[in-house]
Each structure stands twice: as C-alpha cells, then as structure tokens.
Amino acid sequence: MSMDIEDYHQNMKQIKLICEDLPFPILIVDSGEHCIFINHHFTNVIKYSLDDIPILQTWNSIALLEQNSDIKAFKHSQKYKPPHNKLKILKIRCKDQRIRNFIIQNVEIFKEFTIFFFIDPALLLEIEMKTSLTEAYLHKMIEEFPLPIVLTDKEDVVEYINPAFSKMFGYTQEDIKSNDDWGRLAYPDPAYFEKIRNQREYLDLNNARIRERLVNCKDGSKKYIINQDIFIDNKRELTISLDITKLRRIEEAKKQQDILFEQMIENAQDIIVLLTLEGIIISINPACNNILQYSQKEMIGKNSNDFVSEKHRNFTDQQALAKIQGKKKKTRYSVDMIRKDGSICNMEVSSNIIYKDNQPHRIQAILRDVTELRKISAESHRNERVESISLLAGGIAHDFNNILSAILGNINLLQIESDEQEKIEIINDLENATLQARNLTQQLLSFSKGGTPIKNVSSLEDLVVKSAHFVLRGTNIQSEINLCENLPQISFDEGQIYQVLNNILINAIQAMENGGMITLSTERVTIDKNNYFPIPEGEYALIKIKDMGIGISPEEQKRIFDPYFTTKATGSGLGLTSCYSIIKNHNGYLTFESELNRGTTFFIYLPIVLV
C-alpha cells in the first residue's frame, strides 16, 4: 500500500518516537531496503551508526556470521516471509568485533517499511514465549501506535483495541467484543456487512490484501478507511486502519468539479478547442456547429488553419510559435475564419500553452464570435465621427457669430469715430476679423473631409499674441504674456488652434465681469510615464491661459466638455466641446484646473513634431 506522502512522514515520525523508547535495539528499513532509522539502544549495544549501514546488503555483509543457520532473517518482508512460530537466535558481529546473540523479529508496516527487533534472549527468560512477538513488545507497540489497531484471536474475539482506534471511531473495547460486534456497529447495512464477511473468508494468511471500507462511527459520522492485516502467528491478527475520508471527499469533489467543467464546456457559447503543438484539433465543443456550421466530427483531426482565412494563416502560425518558444505565455488576437457556407466571421482568440513535464504539450484556445460586435463598433465609430463633425461645425458657427459681432461693432465705431488714426486701427481690426471668417470657411472645408486638421509649420507664440490682441481689444481685461525662448516652430492647423485660443479667452473674459488679469504663457515640456496623461510620451508645447474669474464648481467641472452643456443664458454649449475635439485631432490634450472664486487655468498640450 502506498500512503499519502504527508501521512507517511507523520506516521514515520511517531513510530520512530515509539521505537526510541523501547528497551532493545531496533532497525527500520524502507521498501527499497534502505536503512532509515536505528534507535539509541542499537548504537549503544551493536555500536553501528546509520552511516555504517546505508542498506540491508551492507548490514548483512558486516554483521551476519557464516555459521548462522538462517542468514535470510534480514530481508524486507515483501521479499521474504519467515515461518511462523519460530524464533531465530542469530550471532551478530558488533562494530567492536564482539559476537552477541539476538532473537530477530521483523514486522511489516503498510508495506512501506519493515521494523527489525533485536531481542536479547536473557531478557525473555521470565516471559513465556508463545508467539513470534513478546507480549511486552506487542502491547507497547499497539498502545502507542499512531494509527487505529485491533488485535483479534483466531476465533475473531477482540483481545485489545488501542487508544487511536477509540479516538477515530468512538468505540471502546466494551462496545466491541468480537468481529461480529464490530461489523454490526460499523456496517449497519446488512447487505454491505454480508459482502465484507464473504471477503474475509478468502483472506490469505500469508498475503493479506488491503481493503477499503466505509465505516459508521459511534457519533453517526462516516469514514472511509483502508485496513491492512498483519498475521503475527496462526492464532492472532493485527488490523491497522488508515483514514482516507479526506482523500475520498477530495476525489468526489474533483469528480463533481470535472462534471461541472465538462457541462460548462459543452454548453459554452464560445468555441473551446484543444490543439496539438502542430495545430491539429484534438477536441472541440459543440459551439463550433452554431458559429462555424461544422460538426465536432468534421473538425476533429483537421488542422485549425484549415478554417482560418488565408490572409491570417501565417499570423496564427506566428502566434503559436511564439507561445511554444516561450516568447509569449498568453496571446489575444482577432482573426477571420471561414464558415461552412463560405461566409467570413471575425473571431477573438485567447490561447495559452498547456505544459507536461515542464515542456509545451498542448495549445488550449477560446474563440469568441465578435462579428456582430465589430459591426456595431464600426457603426458606433461612424456615428461618433458624424457627431464630432457636427460639434466642430457648431463650434465654428459659434465663432462666426463672435466674428460677425466684432465686425458689426467695429462698423458702428467707424460710424461715430472722427479720429483718422483710430479709424485706421478699426479698419485693421475689421480686416483681421474678415480674415478669420475666411479661415473658418477653410475649417468648414476640412470638417467636410472628416475634421482632419490642415497642418502647416508655424509659430505658436505669434498665434497666442495675435489671439490675445484680437479678443481682449476694447475690454476691461489686462493681459500678461510670457513666451518660451526655446519653443520651436511646430506643425498645426493655424485656423483651428486660433479658434481654440479665442474660445478659451472669450470664456475668461465672461468669467471676469469686473475686469482683471489674464496670463498667457508657453512652455516646452516632456511627458513621461509618470504624468499619467492620455497622450504618448514625448516633447510637447504647452499653452497656459489663466484667468482671475469666478471659477468652475466641482459639479460643472465634470461636464465642462460635454456637448451643449453651458452655464450661460445665451450660450450654445459647443465652444469647449469644439476646442477639446480640435486638440484631440492634433494628438494633443486639453485640460484645466479651477477653484471657485479663485479663477481657472486651461492647459493646451500640442506635440512638437519637427519638420
């Protein structure tokens, strides 16, 4: 019998403790005939250490004398069965070369190891020897043995049960007088009890089999046990039990788990497939019929690439090779597969390697049909593009309204202004406003092509100054402009960025009804992984626009870039939405910081792309 490794070591530890206390030399040998333990009496009396006798063959060669009548005494029990009712007195050569006489008795424990007892005949003079074991040893061994033991005679009368037996099953020797008593208590089902009785009739006294039983304990609980019989003579029998309830419950739970897992695979909506490393399909669940229109029988044994579109076959081979070579533990990708009717479906594949003996053994993959999801996503993307263009067009219309207001205002000023120099400045402003209107028409043309910026290399500082001069002229707002000295010319759509600057400045003016200061500045900054911005790492031009207005409340901050959200009575709610979309289309980032009654600062990040 092979015990669980943890149980083996635990039982071995307890047996060694018992043997250490017994008053005679003891040697323990495992099933491979390796000497694994000697007690201190062995060392004191026979003088050999465990290092001197690593295996039985070594011990036999140095300790047994030629004149011994039976040199087979030292053999593992499974390989040698000594005759019963005979005690052999052997002459043993100790390490100090003295010759001593010992009665040798070996006992097999669960076929995992054998205990050899060296008993000095002088110690047995006052003890009547009727069996191959002394009563003193026998009761000592049973009493302290860590596993349940029952000692019965040839009439099936229970002579003794040890404390471990009562602890495990709850029954005492008063409850169990015979094997029949035990049977009625432990096996209340008559049919099961009869089956066990019939098995006992065929036991071989020289080669008792290991038997599994389901036992009813005294408290009503049930335990799975394994019994091992040791026939110590023709009159008595030791039955040792090992509790395997936990093991059986784990096995049952695993069995139920396996059943549940199989049901999950069978009923899964996704395709679950097991492949050889060469890509041959070993097993596949019924979902293949619903998705690919092939039956399991039609797919098993075929190469998985037979069902992949030709344009993706090399790609799937590369993915599998990368996993097999250990370059990737798991992969997730999309491929087009061919249905039985010839139509194409898009599959999202998640796969990984199954290892055996630390080597790649199989490929397991889950395939999800995302054909409809891709169609929905594409439609959603188109809707978002249309919405984005609509928002940008609305923002341009908003700017057109601002420009027209500026033009009309300047025309009114011309009508009442008499100073020639002032008229010239007003005419210049009118010209600038008209040019801005022309730029906006160019933006409308670009939006008609999808909102893509029309980029040219230009000076960002010049545009900041130009926008501040145009928007702030004639207001009660003062400005402070701080420009970066090392900011290079970059590529951007001048009309769109001008629109962004104008919108943010107009909002700043409206936030400071009683006047104040607006600060504009430019910087060259580096975005790295520690910035946590939704833009790639690299060099960026940063424009900061800071006002001293009323600020934005926390509730409004969450919606500031939402379309049509506005706190103004006459606002359209498209200005900042348009700004955000423009900066995003430039691969940049627009954000802000604000505190009520402390003002607001907008941050515009534009990538520095040197041309």
UniProtKB/TrEMBL annotation:
The keyword Cell inner membrane does not apply. Its EC number is 2.7.-.-. One of its GO terms (molecular function) is transferase activity. InterPro entries: HATPase_C_sf (IPR036890), HATPase_dom (IPR003594), His_kinase_dom (IPR005467), HisK_dim/P_dom (IPR003661), HisK_dim/P_sf (IPR036097), PAC (IPR001610), PAS (IPR000014), PAS-assoc_C (IPR000700). Residues 331-382 form the PAC domain. Residues 134-189, 257-327 form the PAS domain. It holds the Pfam family PAS_8. SUPFAM superfamilies: ATPase domain of HSP90 chaperone/DNA topoisomerase II/histidine kinase (SSF55874), Homodimeric domain of signal transducing histidine kinase (SSF47384), PYP-like sensor domain (PAS domain) (SSF55785). Keywords: ATP-binding, Coiled coil, Kinase, Nucleotide-binding, Phosphoprotein, Transferase, Two-component regulatory system. Residues 416-443 form a coiled coil. CDD domains: HisKA (cd00082), PAS (cd00130). Residues 395-610 form the Histidine kinase domain. PROSITE patterns: HIS_KIN, PAC, PAS. PANTHER family: SENSOR HISTIDINE KINASE (PTHR43065), TWO-COMPONENT SENSOR PPRA (PTHR43065:SF42). This is Adaptive-response sensory-kinase SasA. It comes from Candidatus Lokiarchaeum ossiferum.
